[in-house]
Amino acid sequence: SPRNGWAGVGASDAIEALVAAGAKGAVLPTPPPSVDVARGIATALAPIAAAVKKDDDSVGEPGPAPSASGSSTAPTPAVGTTTMAGKIIDPTTQALLERERVLLDDAVGFLTESTPSLEEIGLLVEARKGLEELFLLVIVGEFNAGKSSVINAMLGQKALKEGILPTTNEITVLKFGEKPRTEQSKDGFYTQLIPADLLREVNIVDTPGTNVILERQQRLTEEFVPRADLVLFVLSADRPMTESEVKFLSYIRKWGKKVAFVINKCDRLENQGEVDEVSGFVADNAERLLGVTDPAVLPVSAKAALAAKEKGGSELDFARLEDYILSFLGAGDKKGKNSGEGLRLKLGTPLQVGTMLFGAAEEILAQERAEAVEELQQAEGVDAAMDKYRAAMEADFGAQVQAVRTAVNGAVGRCDDLLDATLRLTNGADLFATYVLGNGANGAIRERYKKEVLGDSEAKLRAAIKEHTGWLARNNDNQLRAYADAVRARGFDPSATDLNLFEREERIAADEAAAIAAVRAEVAAKQTAAAEAEAKAAEAKASAAAKETAGDGADDSDADD
Ligand SMILES: Nc1nc2c(ncn2[C@@H]2O[C@H](COP(=O)(O)OP(=O)(O)O)[C@@H](O)[C@H]2O)c(=O)[nH]1
Ligand SMILES: [Mg+2]
């Protein structure tokens, strides 16, 4: 079979390589998609793409023998019963097609998951669908070059409108249909069913053309290029290779498309010499711009061809164009050239799109990775700065707490001093009480306590705490502002995070109130202790008085000093 050239591809370990790289099914939940996986898929696509792109020479070369254990009794698959888009295909191609379908579904799944920002994913989905369709011939070129006329001449009928003004405003997909009918499928997208035999073999797309005033028309035309299995680039013989055509060609090249050049309106040229001249000019430019050798350049006159067909005849140049197109669809032309090429192009189309998208995805992922690394470094920097800040704050905090503690201890110490001083002047509890009470009025201790012990302790504590909380707030504010700036610099909204200054200030005020309350409680406790001491003294006084009464009543009270 002329298609045996496909067999080698079936033996490729593309799928295994893909699976090894981590691409499993349409969903890749864990681990998160990485550049490595993108590379894996791109690598896996490569051998299939390479096989599909094999040069014409390799076509028809017998492929390796079927690997089915060589047994002559093994049942051979029923050759010729499998179809692709209604066309009969051999088992090897069928197997290849199956693999490609799985691979493409994986690829779509992977891209959707890993680079959802990649707008062109839809192109791969469309290209994947195209595998189930007929060979797709897309006619492009500047408006008025004669694209619609060329298609009409191919079909032998004026199925499409022609005109000197940009007439084909929308994409028109021409398909076979027993009854002529036009359906509007999507935005700017018509399907026209025509009972023309050629359309049993191929779907043809008429585009609005490039170099049109309406940008939308240009976009529609460009968007259809990736899906094409073969691009017919229609040029007008009287203005071949304009600047916009050169630009559009480089766009087509980007997608790795096979392009044939149709030089239309050759009836406007003077003689065959001019036709050859224009053909040579187009061929030279095409070689240079597309990087191909011996590009197909077909000079025609769509006008003359349709006129001839309508009279039941044919026109030689146009017949060459038709042979060329048909050579892709069957077993090649009379010499077997292009045999199997159509199938090869068809299978290659989604792979080209996939390769393009993986290239773009790899760039996106590499970029994202670089950004993530940078962010990680910054986060680590912030982390380190915070650690440092915490250590510094803890050191300062210790010092300030010590200051507060000193103030409290000072009060405690003075309290002890007072008691000591009092006790030193006495020789025992009883005497202490006597001494104290003999001094005069009730509450003498309390008064002295207040004056000598507490003094301005509370005011001092308040001041110390206020200073401490103020210091905390100031430092935190500065630190916080620095982090907020860093977060803002990364393009995030700091107010969406925990870095809310107002809330934080409220928290600091609450902390301050709590600290003051704690000091108050401590002071109150000391007051209670003083009151208790007073009460004890009162008790001692009472018992001393009772002793006095019970003991020597005559003994006159020796006043204390
Ligand atoms: N002389 C001449 N005119 C042609 C030929 N083909 C198309 N035209 C004219 O060129 C104009 C544009 O043709 P059309 O097919 O609408 O171009 P499109 O915009 O590329 O689809 C129309 O006026 C056609 O009649 C041709 O082979 N020879
Ligand atoms: Mg047109």
From TrEMBL:
It comes from the Eukaryota. One of its GO terms (biological process) is thylakoid membrane organization. Residues 138-265 form the G domain. SUPFAM superfamilies: P-loop containing nucleoside triphosphate hydrolases (SSF52540). Residues 53-85, 538-561 are annotated as: Disordered. GO terms for cellular component: chloroplast membrane. It holds the Pfam family MMR_HSR1. Residues 66-78, 540-552 have a biased composition (Low complexity). One of its GO terms (molecular function) is GTP binding. This is G domain-containing protein.
